[in-house]
Design goal:
The chain is mainly α. The protein is built from 14 helices and two strands, in the order αααββααααααααααα. This is PstC family ABC transporter permease.
Length: 381
């Protein structure tokens, strides 16, 4: 039997050559398919940079990055894009402030607090938010949310403070309380007694702070609902499914053994989540945050419809209640007008903006890769 089997495994030279060639062709085909996305990125970089360089040759870098005067159709034309960069950064930070605390809190809740059956219902519902077209979000922001913000902005902001800052400050209270208990171990040897003193004090101070802040915001009047705050909240909601889904997957990947090990050492559920699970999943959570930032910074339709499109820096610069203008909205809005003057600075400046967006996205992706690698190395993965 063994002699017959060995005879069947011996191939002729021609058959062996055909097998090697077919293997090589198959691998080459799969490599080509895998490389298509890489080639697409390089081609996009090349064509955008090709049309961006003429602008910098004609107008230079100084006015584009430092001037606050954006009059591309004026005579003479002025291309100061600093307010547009500030507007882009402002709405991105605002979206991060909305999406990150809510998204990570929701992910922790889904992975470690809610029963499995409830999670199977809630997670798909959150992910449905990603399937809503951006123009629908923009329409909602312009027609529904902007009038609400203008007429009842104080109540909305006051409620938003509790919803957004509440989870963040609750986590801070837990972490700070544990640190204080460790530091006061000599003075108060019993951790339960120390916790019974420290946590109520920190919790009360936090509630007083939130109450005072929400009370001050309650009387706030907003002159226009189409502003940076409107866009930031909507962009934060749009980025929420990405942050929740990727963070929840990262928390789940931490594994049951890690949780059981922490419980076996006497840690509570809160201590296990904060001190064990979140640090072990930090690379995935950071990746989720960066993907959420990318979702917010690259969005066009919502910012075009609901940001007010005012190319000026708010006073002070962090005032999210004033209209702003972003890079994506400027490119989308001006491309139709600039198309008939192809070859002019007004045409090429839009490619310069697109190149800045692309370069920022590329750098952020590189940073996320570096963070993930360092986190995995630190955790010994």
């Amino acid at each position: 039997m063994s002699k017959t089997a060995n005879t069947n495994l011996i191939m002729s030279d021609a058959a062996s050559r055909r097998q090697r060639i077919s293997t090589l062709l198959g691998q080459s085909f799969l490599f080509l398919i895998t490389s298509l996305s890489t080639f697409a990125v390089f081609f996009i970089f090349y064509f955008i940079l090709k049309d961006a360089i003429p602008f910098f040759k004609l107008e230079g870098f100084t006015e584009f990055f430092s001037s606050t005067r954006w009059y591309p159709s004026g005579s003479p034309a002025e291309f100061g894009a600093l307010p547009i960069f500030v507007g882009t950064g402002l709405v991105t930070l605002g979206a991060v402030a909305v999406a990150v605390p809510l998204g990570i809190s929701a992910a922790v809740c889904l992975s470690d607090l809610l029963p499995f059956k409830v999670r199977q219902i809630v997670k798909p519902v959150i992910e449905v938010l990603a399937a809503i077209p951006s123009v629908a979000y923009g329409f909602f922001a312009l027609v529904v949310f902007a009038p609400l913000l203008q007429n009842h902005g104080g109540i909305i902001l006051s409620t938003g403070v509790w919803l957004v800052l509440g989870p963040i400050l609750a986590l801070l209270v837990i972490v700070l309380g544990d640190l204080l208990i460790d530091k006061l171990r000599k003075q108060i040897p019993n951790p339960k007694i120390a916790g019974a003193i420290i946590f109520p004090i920190l919790g009360t101070l936090t509630l007083i702070f939130l109450f005072q802040l929400s009370t001050r915001l309650l009387g706030l009047e907003i002159s226009s609902g189409t502003n940076a705050l409107n866009v930031s909240i909507i962009l934060g909601i749009m980025a929420l499914p990405t942050v929740v889904s990727v963070s929840e997957d990262a928390l789940q990947a931490a594994g049951r053994e890690l949780r059981e090990g922490s419980y076996a050492l006497g840690a509570t559920r809160a201590e296990t989540i904060i001190k064990t699970i979140i640090p072990a999943s930090i690379s995935g959570i950071l990746a989720a945050v960066i993907l959420g930032v990318m979702r917010a910074i690259g969005e066009t339709m919502v910012v075009w419809m609901a940001s007010g499109n005012a190319s000026r820096i708010p006073e002070p610069w962090y005032n999210v209640l004033q209209p702003i203008r972003t890079l994506t909205a400027t490119i989308a809005g001006d491309m139709g007008e600039a198309d008939h003057v192809t070859g002019s600075s007004r045409f090429h400046v839009l490619f310069a903006m697109a190149f800045c967006l692309l370069a920022f996205s590329f750098i952020m992706n590189l940073v996320s890769e570096i963070i993930v690698k360092r986190s995995r190395k630190k955790l010994g993965k």
